[in-house]
């Protein structure tokens, strides 16, 4: 007999989807800002890598903040 894992609450599933969506949108905005900033003020050769770097930072900050707030209000 196999035991299936407990089902997650529907609110948790909805939160997980929204957390990934908001983090991705933060990545897009951060990447756009990073591309413009690095291309304008640092070097023309660092436009895209700088954008990806800033976008990745924005993604991590948003994802981490959403996780922290979930745990603060709902535990786990």
Q: Quick recap of the structure?
A:
The chain is 80% helix and 0% strand. The protein is mainly α and 76 residues long. The longest helix is centred in the middle third of the chain and has 33 residues, at 10-42.
Give the key terms:
elongated; 76 residues; 80% helix; mainly alpha
Furnish the topology, listing elements before pairings.
Layout: H1 10-42, H2 47-74
Helix pairs in contact: 1-2
Q: What does this protein structure show overall?
A:
- Helix 1 (10-42) runs antiparallel to helix 2 (47-74).
- This protein has helices at 10-42, 47-74.
- Helices cover 80% and strands 0% of the residues.
- It contains two helices and no strands.
- The protein starts with 9 loop residues before the first helix and ends with a helix.
- The model has no long low-confidence stretch (mean pLDDT 86).
- The protein is mostly helical and 76 residues long.
The span between the termini is 28 Å
What ranges have pLDDT less than 50 throughout 5 or more consecutive residues?
none
**Portion in strands:** under 5%
Order of helices and strands: HH
Number of strands: 0
User: What structural category arises from helix and sheet content?
Assistant: mainly alpha
The main pleated sheet reads as: none
Task: Give the helix tally.
Answer: 2
Compute the average pLDDT: 86
Q: Shape, please?
A: elongated
